[in-house]
Amino acid sequence: MKIFITGGTGFVGRTLVVHLITAGHLVTVLGRTTAAVQEKNLRQIQGDPGHPGPWQNELRDHDAVINLAGASIFCRWNQANRRKIFDSRILTTRNVVDALRLPGCQVKVLLNGSAVGYYGNRGEEELVESSCGGSGFLAEICKAWETEACRAEELGVRVVRCRLGVVLGNNGGALDKMTPLFRAGLGARLGSGRQWFPWIHQSDLVRIFAMLLDSQEISGAINCVAPETATNLDLSRTLAMVLHRPLFLPPVPAFFLRLVQGEASSILLDSLRVSPRRLEHSGFIYKFPTLVLALTELLNSGK
């Protein structure tokens, strides 16, 4: 399969590209800059997916598109950063779908990034793919993001909206930020610690993407999270245990996180009890269904 990827140089994208070319797919990665590559089955082209350009013509002769582009949400949400976060997702997706309208386009499937932030802060409510969208900055972005992607359905393209949980992996992401403190014995739960924390191991995530490319009967929203639901306290305890460190410090107060991070503290404090119902019904088999297995593998492989 010929696959076109935006966001292929990011934390998730890098792992996904390796997985796909190893499986024998032909992969084209769109980036603002290009580097010399010698990988078989990998091609890089230069372009900004946030703006229309020649890259849209390149996209046409591929079988599938995976759209993962988006600026980091881990920043203070001032007006400029809000606009960057929004535009990097919505405008990119709009430009991708516009490319699908070009004459001779062969794309049959679009896997479009989204996030569990779609559901907003929902406390103890179990959230499945049919649950309604929530409120707040991230929820509104995800709803707009998915709306843009769904325009491709009018063209006969199968669209899968991949609502990602927090991706646990090496060489980037949330785990790299947490591990140094926990290794030093300075880890602590955040706020009450009772907020639900939807997560996924990076290896399982790229396997999910590969499965979704091939599963022609699957479309619509998919919760890309692990089957084990865990709270922030569960995560803190498991990370401390795997690292053989104590967890004795008092929790980081919610008000302090709000003071430091502003509205972006919702990333850490919102509660989303997300279930991967459609993945489980599809028969997908997780390699890392529990935090203990995931963190043990990641922290050992990262040594």
Q: Layout of helices and strands, plus pairs?
A:
Elements: E1 2-6, H1 11-22, E2 26-31, E3 42-46, H2 55-59, E4 64-67, H3 79-100, E5 109-115, E6 126-127, H4 137-150, E7 158-164, E8 166-168, H5 173-183, E9 199-201, H6 202-214, E10 220-224, H7 232-242, H8 254-261, H9 266-269, E11 273-274, H10 277-282, H11 291-301
Parallel strand pairs: 1-2, 1-4, 2-3, 4-5, 5-7, 6-11, 7-10, 8-9
- Beta-strand proportion: 15-25%
CATH topology of the domain at 2-168 and 200-225 and 276-282: Rossmann fold
Main sheet properties: 7 strands, parallel
User: For the residues shown, what is the average pLDDT?
Assistant: 95
Please tell me the CATH architecture of the domain at 2-168 and 200-225 and 276-282 by its name.
3-Layer(aba) Sandwich
CATH class of the domain at 2-168 and 200-225 and 276-282: Alpha Beta
The rounded distance between the terminal residues' Cα atoms is 34 Å
- Class by SSE composition: alpha/beta
Number of helices: 11
Strands ordered across the widest β-sheet: 3-2-1-4-5-7-10
The CATH superfamily of the domain at 2-168 and 200-225 and 276-282 appears as NAD(P)-binding Rossmann-like Domain
Q: From the alpha-carbon coordinates, what is the Rg to the nearest angstrom?
A: 19 Å
What's the helix-strand series? EHEEHEHEEHEEHEHEHHHEHH
Instruction: Give the overall silhouette.
Output: globular
Uncertain parts: none
Q: Using DSSP, what is the number of strands?
A: 11
Helix proportion: 25-40%
